[in-house]
């Protein structure tokens, strides 16, 4: 199965993960079809590494191209 999620999400809850996720912060999605099939989302978290978290912690967002380029370059 090919991962279908690319792009960015905003964290809307971090219960259980306060050191790893900041509410209202934008995170880059790392495509992971296996995680998605288990209702998980893989993101680059505050450690700078990619980890999976419950999908309900995030809301997918669409950003203007300029914002995407800026976040990817950061």
| CATH domain class | Mainly Beta
Q: Please tally the helical runs, counting DSSP H or I stretches of 4 or more residues.
A: 2
Distance, first to last CA? 30 Å
| Largest sheet features | 3 strands, antiparallel
Uncertain runs are none
- Beta-strand share of residues: 25-35%
Rg calc: 12 Å
Number of strands: 5
Query: What is the H/E order?
Result: EEHEEEH
What is the domain tally? 1
Question: What is the 3D form?
Answer: globular
- Which fold does the CATH topology refer to? SH3 type barrels
Report mean pLDDT, rounded to a whole number. Answer: 91
CATH architecture: Roll
Largest beta sheet: strand ordering: 2-1-5
Structural class: alpha+beta
- Determine the fraction of residues in helical runs and give it as a percent range: 10-25%
């Amino acid at each position: 199965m090919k991962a279908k999620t690319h792009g960015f999400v905003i964290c809307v809850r971090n219960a259980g993960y306060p050191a790893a996720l900041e509410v209202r912060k934008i995170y880059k999605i790392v495509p992971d079809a296996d995680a998605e099939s288990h209702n998980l989302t893989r993101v680059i978290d505050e450690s700078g590494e990619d980890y999976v978290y419950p999908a309900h912690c995030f809301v997918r967002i669409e950003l203007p191209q300029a914002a995407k380029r800026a976040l990817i370059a950061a």
